[in-house]
Amino acid sequence: MKKIFSLLLVAVLAMALFVGCTPKSDSGDGGDDSSGGSGEGKTVGVAMPTQSSERWIKDGDNMKSQLEELGYKVDLQYAEDDPQQQVSQLENMLASGVDCLVVAAIDSQALINPLKQAKDAGVPVVAYDRLLMDTDAVSYYATFDNKGIGTAIGSYVEEKLDLANATETYTFELFMGSPDDNNAYMLYDGLMEVIQPYIDKGTLVCKSGQTSFEKSNTLRWDQQTAMRRCEDILSSYYADEKLDIAFSAYDGLSYGVKAACEGAGYKVGAEDWPVITGQDAELMAVKNIIAGSQTMSIAKDTRILAEKCVKMVEAVLKGTEPEINDTEQYDNGKLVVPSYLCEPQPVDKDNYKEILVDTEYYTEAEINEE
Q1: CATH of domain 43-144+302-342
Q2: What segment(s) does the record annotate as region Disordered (predicted)?
Q3: CB–CB of 41/110 below 8 Å?
C-alpha cells in the first residue's frame, strides 16, 4: 500500500513539474489566445477626422473592433475637424509608444511634421481613405476608388436623364468637396470626365459659371457652407429658371442643398425638384432618398475598408505584403503610395434594400425609424 502511495505521489509531482515548465501563450497578454489574435499586445493609434459625420463614426468603430479582435490595443481619437488637434493627437500617440498609426487626415499638409516624427521613430503609417500628401512616411493607403466615385455620380445622372439623347437643356451646379482633401480633386476629375462633353454640347448649363474645382469646393465638406452657397446661387442665377441638377460630392453637402432649395420654394416630390446626388449613403441620406428629397448616394462599406486597412497594419508590423490593387494613381508628391481601392456602389430608391439592408449595413428598423 505504501509502495502504491509513493508511486502516486511521484506521478503527481512529475505532473506539477511538467505544467510549471509549460510555456505561456505568446499572445502578448500571457492569456488565452483562443480568438486567433496576432496583435501580440501591440498598440495601433487610429486618428479619425470628426464624429460630426456618421460615416467616420462607423469607420472608427470598424477599425477598432477588427484590430482588437486580432489582439491589438487601439487608441482611437477624433479631432473634430481641427487640424491642430489632430497634430497634437498624433504627437501624443507617438509619445505613448504606439507601434503603428492609421491616419484619416483632416488637412494632410498640417501633419507633415508628426508624420516625419513617426518615420524617425520607426513607426509605420497607413493612410485611411484620405491620402497623406507630401510625405514619405506613409507605407500604404486604403480607400475607395475616389475618381470612380465621381464617375459613378456623373454616369448615374447621365443615365437617369438620358443625356446622350436629350433634346432639352438641363441646368446644374457643383457642390464639391474640401480643397485640403486629395479625394475631392479625384472625385471632381471623375465627374467632369463624364459631364464635360454635355457641357461642351450645351446639354448641361451651369448658370453661375462655377464649374472649376476652385469655385465649387466646400472647405471641410461643411453642410452650412454648402447651404449658404446654394442659397446665394439660387437667388442670384435662378430667379427665373429652375435648377435641375445639384452635383453634390457628399451627403452632408446634399442636406445643405436640400435645405436651400426648400428655402427657395422648391417642393419635395414636385416635378421641378432637382436631382441631388451624394456620397457615403449615410442613414439620413437613405431616408431622404426614400422620401424623394435626395436622388442617390454612393455606398461605401466601411467594414470592407477597415478590413483592408487592418491587413495593411498587419503587413507593416510583420514585414509582409498586403493585398494591393493600385500602384499608379496615388502620387502624394513624394512617392506613389501602394493602395487598395474598394468598389463604390451607387444607391437610389430602387436598390437601397439590396445594397444596404440585405448586406446588413443597415437594418429596416433603422431606416424606418422616425
Answers
A1: 3.40.50.2300
A2: 24-51
A3: no
